[in-house]
Design brief:
With 151 residues, the protein is an alpha/beta fold. The protein has helices spanning 18-25, 68-77, 82-95, 105-112, 129-132, 137-150, and strands at 3-11, 30-38, 58-61, 99-103, 122-125. The protein has one domain (3-150): Glycogen Phosphorylase B (Rossmann fold). Strands 3-2-1-4-5 form a five-stranded parallel sheet, with helices on both faces. Residues 75-139 form the Glycosyltransferase subfamily 4-like N-terminal domain. It comes from Desulfotignum phosphitoxidans DSM 13687.
Length: 151
């Protein structure tokens, strides 16, 4: 049985970024599974470099059954609800990943609080914006956000 890596992104469209998609589809010794929180309506453009997301990527939409409160909590607070945290923990227990990879340091903060109790190695990748621009945003509050979420 192949070992499993569980990838986390905030938006499904982030999988169009070639540097992320290539990491996911080119694992030789690992089965890749992606969890994302925010889908993009069909036909909507939301950046990225690839035309499409590779069809062989296994994906789980954490926000597929969200209610009004959960939508607002995420939109304005970038937080998961208690129910979504429980759903995420249940998925991790079922999938039993060997490693968790969070793409984008800013987005890791969305998931890490819910996953603190798991004794599974975690990797957070920082790319451009989240290590250069974001820490200076909001008069330096971006740096505090990253520091607080990483603890």
């Amino acid at each position: 049985m192949k070992r499993r890596v569980l990838h986390f992104v905030r938006k499904k469209s982030q999988l169009k970024a070639s540097f992320i998609q290539n990491q996911i589809v080119n694992h030789i010794d690992f089965e890749s599974i992606v969890i994302f929180r925010q889908g993009i309506p069909k036909g909507a453009y939301d950046g990225g470099f690839a035309e499409e997301i590779a069809s062989d990527i296994k994906m789980i939409d954490l926000g597929d059954d969200e209610n009004f409160f959960e939508k607002k909590l995420f939109r304005f607070g970038k937080q998961l609800s208690f129910r979504q945290c429980e759903k995420l923990r249940r998925m991790v227990r079922e999938i039993q990943p060997d490693i968790m990879h969070f793409h984008y340091g800013t987005d890791a903060g969305i998931y890490l609080k819910a996953l603190k109790g798991f004794d599974i190695p975690k990797v957070v990748s920082f790319y451009g914006y989240d290590c250069f621009s974001f820490p200076r945003k909001y008069f330096g509050a971006g740096r505090l956000y990253l520091k607080k979420k990483s603890i």
